[in-house]
Design a protein that fits this description.
Blueprint lengths: L2 H8 L1 H17 L25 H11 L22 H13 L11 H15 L6 E5 L2 H20 L3 H4 L9 E3 L4 H9 L7 E3 L11 H9 L6 E6 L11 H6 L6 E6 L24 E5 L11 E5 L2 H8 L28 H37 L2 E3 L7 E6 L5 H14 L5 E5 L2 E7 L7 H16 L3
Parallel strand pairs: 2-3, 2-4, 4-5, 5-6
Antiparallel strand pairs: 1-7, 6-7, 8-9, 9-11, 10-11
Helix pairs in contact: 4-12, 5-12, 6-8, 6-11, 12-14, 13-14
Length: 463
């Protein structure tokens, strides 16, 4: 054995205690760490010929790299939709690395049983008791898997096997959606269906929610040919929700697969005041839920739910003499793109076991309240205006005066430069804008005050 490996093995408990202490220092210091870090590229170091051991590697990381990392795990990182990691989720993630299970099959470990239990818990949160699920890397892969199952369903309707004969056997495919996420286009490209298969359907006035009557017209125009409908449970810019129940009811008249992208909006189910927004979610054929957003587990983790796991097996079957054939409860190697898989479920299991439904209801409701508070605070200054109501956990706003692309870009950069908060730019209804998204378990009203003050102060210097 290499001498440094032998030394680290002999000293492993003490070394892990050192890593734990360093991690605790980072986590407890998040409030003081700059939320965003403007990067100056550095030349990469050469690969060491002889390693220096874990202790020295940790020291080098703390000196060269860790100070340049952002405070994205902290309470005032409002870019994209980025959760943190609860204490229990961190513990689960560490144990995932320690146990190092390949959550592919149940031949040698209870890992996939834990994953199934965790999926059941998550399904209960969203009213998806009749669906079956599997862990994947994130919302993009979750949407990819859901649309892959939809592709198999299209083949079933047309009497062909896409898994066997290829996507060309389908002929033209139509995907209908009001405001699809960018990952839908990416997934369709990877699936061979093509980005051009998406037919955008009119949305309601001043909304991102699809006009269900126009959707019915689009389906009717297909003259009975089956299609895929992608509905939204929470759009990126304004967290708008399609009327899922009304869309599902259209299946009485038209043949289509209903895929719901509920990456973070599905968590509205945990708030009694907002649960109506996801009414009808259980009627979906497949559902995307991202967990490293509002469940606050470490990157990367998401779940794909579906009613048709038989079609999922058809798409992702991994057949070999040394592998277990799929049964009524197929191994996950037959359900997702990966064969070898990290046990992502363990971090989710830990945090759900530790905090339960009530703990997550608190996080969701607190984040929703913080988003509303920021929206009110920004508009009160007179420097900003909201571009839509704060429906859930995102405030979408712009400059009240001359919101040109240049001025909004300068504002986003100035906000990042404060180190107090981080927001991301967007365009809504043709207007350059900014999104502030709340999904971190640590965030409180005090953080909103600090973030709002930083945003307002940054606007003072915009010419």
């Amino acid at each position: 054995m290499d001498s440094k490996l032998a030394e680290d093995l002999a000293d492993l408990p003490a070394l892990l205690n050192t890593v734990s202490a360093e991690a605790g220092e980072v986590l407890l210091g998040l409030d003081k760490r700059p939320v965003a870090m403007v990067q100056q590229p550095q030349a990469p170091a050469a690969l060491p010929e002889a390693g220096s051991g874990l202790h020295q590697a940790l020291s080098e990381f703390r000196g060269r790299w860790e100070p340049r990392f952002s405070g994205s795990a902290g309470p005032r990182y409002l870019g994209f939709v980025t959760g943190g990691a609860t204490p229990a989720a961190i513990a689960g993630d560490w144990m995932t690395s320690v146990l190092d299970q390949n959550a592919m099959s149940g031949e040698d470990s209870a890992a996939i049983e834990l994953e199934r239990e965790t999926i059941g818990w998550i399904g209960e949160l969203f009213g998806l008791a009749e669906h079956r699920g599997a862990f994947v890397t994130g919302a993009t892969t979750s949407n990819f898997v859901g649309l892959a199952i939809a592709r198999e369903w299209l083949g079933e309707q047309l009497g062909v096997s896409v898994a066997q004969d290829g996507v060309g056997a389908l002929g033209p495919v139509t995907v209908l959606s009001g405001t699809p996420h960018s990952s839908i286009f990416k997934s369709l490209s990877m699936l061979g269906i093509g980005r051009g298969s998406v037919q955008l359907v009119s949305t309601q006035p001043d909304r991102e929610a699809v006009d269900v009557d126009r959707l019915a017209d689009a389906l009717g125009a297909l003259s009975g040919r089956p299609a895929i409908v992608v509905a939204n449970a929470g759009t990126v810019n304004t967290v708008d929700f399609d009327d899922l129940r009304a869309i599902a009811a259209l299946r009485q008249r038209f043949p289509f697969w209903l895929h719901v992208d509920g990456a973070f909006g599905a968590f509205a189910a945990l708030s009694p005041e907002h649960a109506h927004l996801v009414d009808g979610l259980a009627a979906a054929d497949s559902v995307c839920v991202d967990l490293h957003k509002w469940l606050n587990v470490p990157y990367d983790a998401a779940v794909q739910f579906t009613r048709r796991q038989d079609l999922q097996v058809r798409a992702f079957l991994n057949s070999a003499a040394y592998l277990t054939a799929p049964t009524d409860t197929p191994d996950f190697g037959h359900l997702v793109p990966e064969n070898s898989r990290r046990l992502r479920a363990l971090a989710a299991w830990f945090t759900l076991a530790a905090y339960g439904r009530a703990g997550y209801r608190d996080i969701v409701q607190r984040n929703i309240s913080c988003a509303a508070q920021l929206g009110e605070a920004l508009t009160a200054t007179g420097r900003f205006r909201l571009l839509s109501p704060v429906r859930l956990n995102v405030a979408c706003f712009t400059l009240a005066d001359r919101p040109t692309p240049e001025r909004v870009h300068a504002l986003v950069q100035a906000i990042a430069d404060t180190g107090e908060t981080f927001v991301t730019p967007t365009v809504y209804n043709g207007i350059p804008a900014i999104r502030a998204a709340f999904s971190n378990w640590r965030t409180t009203s005090r953080d909103v005050v600090r973030a709002g003050a930083a945003i307002s102060k940054a606007a003072e210097g915009i010419e």
